[in-house]
């Protein structure tokens, strides 16, 4: 499903960068990302404060968050058995707090998560407003991805139509050399 969006390994785009910056600002975190998870890695379409474009999937908090129906909140990663030994917790960027809202296609397929992260644990988690904002911004990420997918499908359809027209230009075209008596 992720490949249908044609987004992996593309250059940064302001629309996704703005969403990541706004998520970090609203949630008061040092880091945020639009994370897309494939079979081998999580790749960041946008990131704030992480300084990397991807990490191996086994280190991915978002690989867990994307399976949920709502935001997944890890108040202190050092105290969570799923993440306590994670290299992103024990070493740079020293993640202690994580909140991620799943990015799901209209038919419910999980692609990744919009997440916010911090070096400081947050026993209170997110406020109701922050949780709502994270969901709303995750929905906006999916709106952007759906627009991208629709444009790719349109371009493919136009390419197919153009190729069909070019091929049909030769159908039924003959060059006859008729001898005249």
Would you mind describing this structure in some detail?
It is a single chain. This protein is α+β, with helices and mostly antiparallel strands. Helices cover 35% and strands 21% of the residues. It contains 4 helices and 6 strands. The chain has a 6-stranded antiparallel β-sheet. The mean pLDDT is 90.
Top keywords for this entry?
4 helices, six-stranded antiparallel β-sheet, 181 residues, alpha+beta
| Percent of residues in β-strands | 15-25%
Task: Calculate Rg over CA atoms.
Answer: 23 Å
Number of strands: 6
Largest sheet: 6 strands, antiparallel
- How do the SSEs run, as a string of H and E? HEEEHEHEEH
Give the number of helices. Answer: 4
What structural category characterises the helix and strand content? alpha+beta
Q: Give the strand line-up of the largest sheet.
A: 3-2-1-6-5-4
Shape: elongated
State the end-to-end distance: 67 Å
The helix content is: 25-40%
Mean pLDDT, as a whole number?
90
- Uncertain residue segments: none
């Amino acid at each position: 499903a992720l490949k249908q969006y044609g987004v992996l390994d593309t250059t940064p785009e302001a629309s996704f960068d703005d969403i990541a910056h706004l998520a970090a600002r609203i949630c008061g975190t040092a880091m945020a990302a639009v994370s897309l998870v494939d079979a081998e890695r999580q790749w960041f379409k946008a990131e704030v404060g992480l300084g990397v474009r991807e990490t191996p999937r086994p280190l991915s908090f978002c690989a867990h968050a994307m399976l949920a129906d709502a935001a997944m909140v890890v108040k202190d990663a050092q105290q969570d058995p799923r993440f306590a030994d994670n290299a992103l917790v024990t070493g740079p960027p020293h993640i202690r707090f994580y909140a991620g809202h799943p990015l799901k296609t209209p038919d419910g397929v999980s692609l990744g998560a919009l997440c916010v992260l911090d070096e400081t644990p947050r026993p209170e988690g997110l406020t109701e407003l922050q949780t709502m904002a994270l969901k709303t911004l995750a929905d906006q990420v999916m709106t952007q991805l759906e627009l991208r997918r629709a444009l790719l499908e349109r371009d493919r359809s136009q390419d197919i139509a153009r190729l069909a027209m070019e091929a049909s230009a030769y159908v039924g075209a003959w060059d006859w050399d008729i001898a005249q008596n």
